[in-house]
Design a protein that fits this description.
Layout (H helix, E strand, L loop, with lengths): L44 H10 L19 H72 L5 H42 L1
Length: about 190
């Protein structure tokens, strides 16, 4: 069943009724205009002062300014001196830590350089071992494939054979001479008898 439709005011859009009402009317502005002029947002005075003071704080170190401790309560003076001592200790700890970190960085850098040198040396050794292995395989494959003797090897074998044949001839001559000598001595012995 249809509900009675309400008449629409100037620029309102008809929407289905969901049973909920908006928190603010859609036609009103959140900040009402007074006398046709919008008021700029007013910032409190303490914010303005802190903005002016903060403008030059970024790159300047903060130094403790001497304050008259006598004007404060003794408990505040004690707290202030304790805070100053704590700040001094923290500053000293920071310096020690920075020095220690710099030393560690140097040690780590030296270790890295040493490792890089070792790595380079190991690469060179691996390359050399690879070359030697390939050379060995090349030699063994050449020996298997070609049983052709070099000219030098052939000349060496010929010399050895000549030397052996000359040695044999010399031995044969010596043996013949010995036999002839032994026969002549035996014939002389026989003739004497």
């Amino acid at each position: 069943m249809l509900k009675a439709q309400r008449p629409l005011a100037g620029n309102q859009i008809q929407r289905p009724n969901s049973g909920r009402k908006p928190l603010q009317p859609k036609n009103s502005l959140p900040n009402p205009i007074t006398n046709g002029v919008l008021k700029p947002k007013q910032t409190p005075e303490w914010i303005k002062i802190s903005l002016i003071d903060d403008s030059n704080k970024e790159n300047h170190p903060v130094y403790a300014t001497p304050i008259k401790i006598e004007s404060f309560d003794p408990s505040l003076a004690e707290e202030l001196s304790a805070i100053r001592e704590k700040l001094e200790r923290l500053r000293l700890d920071k310096e020690k830590t920075e020095k220690m970190l710099q030393e560690r960085d140097l040690v780590l850098e030296m270790n890295m350089k040493e490792l890089e040198k070792r790595g380079e040396a190991q690469k060179q050794l691996e390359i050399e071992v690879d070359r030697l292995y390939r050379l060995k395989e090349l030699r063994s494959s050449c020996m298997r494939i070609s049983s052709i003797r070099s000219l030098r090897e052939k000349e060496h074998e010929i010399k050895i054979k000549k030397d052996q044949s000359q040695d044999i001839k010399i031995k044969d001559r010596d043996e013949l001479k010995d036999e002839i000598a032994s026969q002549s001595t035996s014939s002389e012995i026989d003739t004497e008898n």
